[in-house]
UniProtKB/TrEMBL annotation:
Source taxon at top rank: Bacteria
InterPro entries given in the database record: DUF503, TT1725-like_sf
The protein, known as: DUF503 domain-containing protein
Organism (species): Alkalibacterium subtropicum
Lineage per the UniProt record: Bacteria, Bacillati, Bacillota, Bacilli, Lactobacillales
Coiled-coil portions: none
Amino acid sequence: MVLMGVEVTLLIFDSYSLKEKRSVIKSILRRTENRHHLAAAEVGDMELHNKAVIGFGIVGNDRMLCRRRLEAALREIEENYEVEILDFNWIEA
C-alpha cells in the first residue's frame, strides 16, 4: 500500500478578500477531488487573502500512478486558475 501526498503553497492573484480567496480555494478543492480522485483540504495560511496552503493525498498500490495523479492535479491547477505555485513538499509513506 502506498500513501502519498503533496503540500502546495499557492499565491492567488486578484484576491483582495478572504471571500474571494475562499471561492478560488473551494473551486480548486472540488475540481481536484472530482477529476483526480484525491483527498484535498486547505491546511494553512487561512487568514491571508492572497496565499494558501493546500494538501492533497492519495492511497493506492502503484507508487508511479499515485505520483502521476498528484502531478496532473498540480499542472491542472496552474493551467486553469490565476495562481502561482510557490512551493510544494512531497510526502510518502
